[in-house]
RNA sequence: GCCCGGGUAGCCCAAUUGGUCGAGGCAGUGGCCUUAAAAGCCAUGGUCCUGAAAGGACGUACGGGUUCGAGUCCCGUCCCGGGUACCA
């Protein structure tokens, strides 16, 4: 065997050339019969070079794609690039290089890596979201949404990142900071473009029940949408004859409302305080609150502060006058920017009431009336008290409905649902993005660019630097245009779209990527959509995954497609860490895929990444651990090469295996069985690889120690191992299989286990006494329970335990064990 | 605080429905081959009962429970990771 040396540097490019030249992984859109499968990994954002996380997603996705192909499905497995965005633009600002050039360089690096990794991609469908032929349709979709009122422009308080000099969507603000650069965001009043995602809140929430996604991702989306049901209740400020509505989830506690609080941003504060003597105190408080950072203001454990407005509102259920306050714990963005405060049954209101010595009233009886203040604040359920004779004694949940009905009847309120979800702010004051296809005309207003004039090309500019307005505004030739409606002088919209718009529909375009009449042909799309298996990182749990769902629903409503959800199944892969920490340049713990591949080959790198642990969990990279996988693949290849030169032919199962040959045939079939179940259930690739390692170890032992007593059985076992490992290590598996059989393993169906070889004629009977293992005895598989009992009693160590004691009970599990209970 | 994960050997991790805990790999130790090294191969691998063997006791974060039998189910606690939080 010494002359056989596993050389991935020779093997891998050789097979990559075959796949490339024969376009092995391309699929056409012929609408014939046959099961299809759409396997997709989240599209990469190309900057610099791919990192180890990319290697992981595509290793997982490729294993799935190959498995689907070999179980008889036509698999769509495309690739593209999320190519607009700030990285390229910031790079341009620094170097003066056009973002298109740096993006193209990064894309080239990604393409080359994906080829070196041997990922089975249909390259005929490749595109980048910055291609005009692609963003033409992004603009087309924008206009569809615009025509139907789902894209609109409004003046609003928005999140502004001073560092990136652009506005951000709510989803891009994490803990009050810019998701990209980490700079604290500010509130600014600006006119911006929005998508009306809130119109889909209920469907986005309810349809989560129809898709197979990890529960925690669904939970995150549910929380983000944040639907809560309750009532709008109107409170009147009698002094000024002004009405204020509040949203509450607890109208049952209305009788316990003892004061009223408004957000510092509330537009009516000046008006309310005028003439009360509280003007300056309120103004001062408001100024302080508004200049405070989101982070400090938002802290939950911050002591409650506020200022009396000098006015009162009337509680509609009992006519009581309630003092009005301004306090920063009330948010303008949620509900109506004002609340009724029920200190007896809300922790925040309670804290405020304590701080300002306001009355606290119990209106719901607690199940546990102990504790100070009688257990207030009490947020649980129970019968109402101190309310009014109509409701006292009724259970609060029941009373809630009755109170809402009563309010509605009196015209003082109504049932209401509130959402945390805000409309998606899509405009960005940046250069490297998809232009918004709108023209502003002094005569006609906001006018859409006609469809036949798309794409609105992104112009070249000299200066990309962000200035608080889009760099596009400087391209005067481009901005100045004629109004499509009246032909008068008009100006183009200069904001570009959030890159999340680009990635909200790319998976639709893959189905029909060269269509120049439409973004896709609905009949072709119907053949592939939805994506059967989507794979990516959890970090997109709300951003990308929510936006894509919204797009699909909106486009379905507009008649452009026929599915309600983009991704039927979702798999979120875990992060790869090094030394227990996230890889980063500053930490100096980055593992470069290129280095690993040039040292070990792509097969070893891919297989190790899958072997390191369950793919949905985080895993720590080990520089030594990878050796084990390298040895395994090397052993497989060397054995296959040696076996191929030896006696026998092909990799067929021997006719009537016996003795050592039978053992190998059995081992191979057990491996097939185990690997198949690891592939079909969760993606237990780590366990699957371990099973193939066992098989190869068995082959190695037979070959090296026992002199290859049944060469055909060895060929069969090694061929099976190569076949099973193909989805993880495609090059070495192809080569080993080809050496043995002259055939291409990817053209072979997924191996099926032969049940005849899965069960041995004997098994090891486990003998327990009082549940403790005492003996293991080989027994014929067809032994009767009576025989098993007898054998158990005779087993030496069991016997020693039983002797002299009373047998109380005997449990027999056929094919497994006997447990003798003694006293 | 709340909602999800997770805690098995020095390390990463396996273990259908409750039925032999420790598969597979890393690191370690011993050995074979070799002039030597590399490569390759084999063996070993929780703790305790004075060393080894045999045998036994204990052992899946901790404390209880259910069961003939618990890593797995139930109750309580601790630790680690993630998400989320003045959302009325």
Give the radius of gyration: 34 Å
Strand content: 15-25%
Percentage of residues assigned to helices:
25-40%
Shape, per Cα inertia axes: globular
Termini separation comes to 60 Å
The biggest sheet amounts to: 4 strands, parallel
What's the number of helices? 26
- Assign the structural class, choosing from mainly alpha, mainly beta, alpha/beta, alpha+beta, or little secondary structure: alpha+beta
Strand order of the largest sheet: 2-1-24-25
Rounded mean pLDDT score = 91
Please provide the count of β strands: 32
> Which ranges are low-confidence, i.e. pLDDT below 50, for 5 or more consecutive residues?
none
Describe this structure in words.
The protein is built from 26 helices and 32 strands. With 823 residues, the chain is of the alpha+beta class. Strand 31 and strand 32 form a beta hairpin. The chain is globular, with a radius of gyration of 34 Å. The mean pLDDT is 91. The chain binds one RNA strand of 88 nucleotides through helix 7, strand 11, strand 15, helix 11 and helix 20.
């Amino acid at each position: 065997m010494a002359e056989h040396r596993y050389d991935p540097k020779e093997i891998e490019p050789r097979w990559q050339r075959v796949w490339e030249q024969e376009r092995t992984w391309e699929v056409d859109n012929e609408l014939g019969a046959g099961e299809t499968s759409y396997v997709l990994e989240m599209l990469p954002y190309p900057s610099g070079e791919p990192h180890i996380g990319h290697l992981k997603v595509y290793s997982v996705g490729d294993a799935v794609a190959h498995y689907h192909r070999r179980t008889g499905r036509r698999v769509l497995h495309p690739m593209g690039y999320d190519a607009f965005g700030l990285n390229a633009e910031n790079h341009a600002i620094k170097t003066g290089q056009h973002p298109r050039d740096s993006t193209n360089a990064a894309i080239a690096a990604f393409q080359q890596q994906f080829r070196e990794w041997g990922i089975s991609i249909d390259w005929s469908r490749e595109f980048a979201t910055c291609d005009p032929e692609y963003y033409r349709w992004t603009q087309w979709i924008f206009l569809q949404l615009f025509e139907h009122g789902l894209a609109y422009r409004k003046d609003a308080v928005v999140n502004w990142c001073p560092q990136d000099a652009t506005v951000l969507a709510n989803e891009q603000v994490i803990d009050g900071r810019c998701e990209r650069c980490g700079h604290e965001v500010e509130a600014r009043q600006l006119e911006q473009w929005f998508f009306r995602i809130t119109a889909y809140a209920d469907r986005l929430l309810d349809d989560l029940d129809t898709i197979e996604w990890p529960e925690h991702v669904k939970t995150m989306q549910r929380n983000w949408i944040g639907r809560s049901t309750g009532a709008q209740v109107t409170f009147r400020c009698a002094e000024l004859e002004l009405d204020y509505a509040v949203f509450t989830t607890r109208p049952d506690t209305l009788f316990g409302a003892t004061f009223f609080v408004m957000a510092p941003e509330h537009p009516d504060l000046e008006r309310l305080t005028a003439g009360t003597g509280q003007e300056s105190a309120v103004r001062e408080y408001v100024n302080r609150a508004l200049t405070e950072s989101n982070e400090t203001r938002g802290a939950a454990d911050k002591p409650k502060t506020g200022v009396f407005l000098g006015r009162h509102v009337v509680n509609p259920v009992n006519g009581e006058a309630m003092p009005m306050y301004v306090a920063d714990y009330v948010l303008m963005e949620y509900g109506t920017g004002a609340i009724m405060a029920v200190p007896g049954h809300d922790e925040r209101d309670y804290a405020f009431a304590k701080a300002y010595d306001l009355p606290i009233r119990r209106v719901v009886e607690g199940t546990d009336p102990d504790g100070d203040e009688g257990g207030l604040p009490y947020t649980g359920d129970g019968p109402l008290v101190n309310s009014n004779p109509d409701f006292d004694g009724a259970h609060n949940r029941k009373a809630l409905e009755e109170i809402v009905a009563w309010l509605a009847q009196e015209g003082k309120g109504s049932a209401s649902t509130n959402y945390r979800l805000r409309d998606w702010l899509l405009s960005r004051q940046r250069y490297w993005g998809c232009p918004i296809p709108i023209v502003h005309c002094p005569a006609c207003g906001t006018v859409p660019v006609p469809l036949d004039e798309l794409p609105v090309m992104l112009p070249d500019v000299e200066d990309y630097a962000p200035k608080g307005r889009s760099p596009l505004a400087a391209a005067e030739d481009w901005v100045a245009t004629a109004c499509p409606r009246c032909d008068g002088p008009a100006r183009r919209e200069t904001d570009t779209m959030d890159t999340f718009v680009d990635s909200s529909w790319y998976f639709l375009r893959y189905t029909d990527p060269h269509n120049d009449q439409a973004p896709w042909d609905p009949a072709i799309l119907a053949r592939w959509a939805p994506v059967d298996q989507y794979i990516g990182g959890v970090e997109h749990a709300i951003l990308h995954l929510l936006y894509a769902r919204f797009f699909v629903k909106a486009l379905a409503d507009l008649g452009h497609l026929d599915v309600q959800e983009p991704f039927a199944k979702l798999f979120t892969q875990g992060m790869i860490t090094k030394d227990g920490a996230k890889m980063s340049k500053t930490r100096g713990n980055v593992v470069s895929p290129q280095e690993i591949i040039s040292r070990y080959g792509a097969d070893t790198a891919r297989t190790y990444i899958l072997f390191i642990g369950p793919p949905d969990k985080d895993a720590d990279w080990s520089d030594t651990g990878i050796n084990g996988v390298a040895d395994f693949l090397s052993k497989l290849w060397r054995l296959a090469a040696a076996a191929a030169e030896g006696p026998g032919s092909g990799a067929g199962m021997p006719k009537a295996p016996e003795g050592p040959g039978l053992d190998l045939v059995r081992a191979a079939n057990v491996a097939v069985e185990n690997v198949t179940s690891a592939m079909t259930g969760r993606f237990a690739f780590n366990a699957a690889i371990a099973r193939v390692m066992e098989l190869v170890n068995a082959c190695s032992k037979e070959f090296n120690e026992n002199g290859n007593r049944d060469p055909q059985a060895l060929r069969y076992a090694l061929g099976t191992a190569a076949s099973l490992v193909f989805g993880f290590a495609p090059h070495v598996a192809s080569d080993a299989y080809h050496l043995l059989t002259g055939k291409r393993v990817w053209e072979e169906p997924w191996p099926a286990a032969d049940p005849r070889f899965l069960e041995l004629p004997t098994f090891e009977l486990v003998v327990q006494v009082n549940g403790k293992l005492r003996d293991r005895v080989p027994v014929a598989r067809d032994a009767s329970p009576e025989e098993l009992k007898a054998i158990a009693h005779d087993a030496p160590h069991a016997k020693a335990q039983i002797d002299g004691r009373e047998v109380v009970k005997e449990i027999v599990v056929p094919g497994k064990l006997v447990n003798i209970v003694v006293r």
